[in-house]
Amino acid sequence: MPGEPQGDCLFCKIVEGHIPATIIRETDTTVAFRDINPQAPTHVLVIPKAHYETAAVLAAAAPELAADVLRETQAVADDEKLESYRTVFNTGSGAGQTVWHAHAHVIGGRGLHWPPG
């Protein structure tokens, strides 16, 4: 059920404190932690504490929570003193989503080229 913790979800386990992560920010509704496989000097994941499989499901079911996630991406960028950064939501396996819990990547600290890939 959307919003409910999933016992087999890596990010739900991080939210519940069952799996360690380098948490750098936390609000009532979100958690931000360093990616274990960083693609840039700054690579932080911002997740809703509630479980939604994809960014699309999150946006449709809980737009206010999606806005919280986006606000936190800016807060992470501010904390990390990033003048430029990229926010990425991978939605679906074809786009590279490997954990089925909506999350935003905040990537910066080096030049980022376009198109990505």
What does this structure look like?
The radius of gyration is 13 Å and the shape is globular. Strand 1 and strand 2 form a beta hairpin. It has 117 residues and is α+β, with helices and mostly antiparallel strands. The protein has a five-stranded antiparallel sheet with strand order 1-2-3-5-4, covered by helices on one side. The protein has helices spanning 10-15, 55-61, 63-79, and strands spanning 23-26, 30-34, 42-48, 85-88, 104-108. It has one domain: HIT-like (HIT family, subunit A, 2-Layer Sandwich). It is 26% helix and 21% strand. The termini are far apart. Residues 10-117 form the HIT domain. This is Histidine triad nucleotide-binding protein. It comes from Streptomyces doebereineriae. A motif (Histidine triad motif) lies at residues 101-105. InterPro entries: Histidine_triad_HIT (IPR001310), HIT-like (IPR011146), HIT-like_sf (IPR036265).
